[in-house]
Amino acid sequence: MTLVRRLLIPVSLCFSAQLFALDDSNTLLLPSDERCLLSLSSTESAAQALSQCSDWAAQGDRQAQFELGQYWLKQPLERQDLPQALHWLELASLQGHAEAQRLLGLMYWQGQGVDGNNVQAYVILKMAAVNGSDQAMDDADHLAEQMQRSELAIATQVLGDIFRRYLDELQSLPANAPLGAQPTPLP
User: Fold this and answer.
1) Which segment of the chain is annotated as a signal peptide (predicted)?
2) What is the model's pTM?
3) Are 101 and 133 in contact (CB under 8 A)?
4) What is the mean pLDDT of residues 14-35?
5) Torsion angle of alpha carbons 92, 97, 100, 104, nearest 10°?
């Protein structure tokens, strides 16, 4: 087998895996971090992918909610829909989706589709960091450098209140509570 053929086979397999992933019936080939395939959709299937993703998001699928929010946020300016982005990112954020929280925090920091609010942005970014977003921790640190001391003091107090309520909820659970009875992720 020639070198060219050995190189072409893996490349063609990658492309065919993406094509199979577009077929809803073959869920084993879906990328683990993307549910809706909005970024892989061709022009013809974009409307179908958007419709399917909207259905999943409306049913409470936090990954689909995140992807819809991200989709509407990342569109070119003439197609961008910031109210839609805000709506879907808020829903995913309330379910503890760290990257949705991060994008939502950035929206508040930059005043993108909402009134800019450093305190709210900082709190949301810190929640995203707690829920697993390393980038959100860096973003929160950069924001803190720009915040006034009074803003940072308010944000720190709000975070303290959130964590106290969370710990109170944890302590109120019975010692032998099943895993499903654990408190919800931090908002």
Assistant:
1) 1-21
2) 0.73
3) yes
4) 43
5) 80
pLDDT band of 59, cuts 50, 70, 90: very high
In the block, which residue shows the tokens 């709210």? 120
User: CA neighbours within 13 Å on the CB side: how many for 113?
Assistant: 21
CA 101, 103, 105, 108 torsion-angle sign: negative
Question: Which residue bears the tokens 């990112």?
Answer: 89
- 96-133 pLDDT, tens digit per residue, is 999 999 999 999 999 999 999 999 999 999 999 999 99
Q: Give the chain's domains with CATH numbers.
A: 47-171 (1.25.40.10)
Neighbours of 172 (CB within 10 A): 9
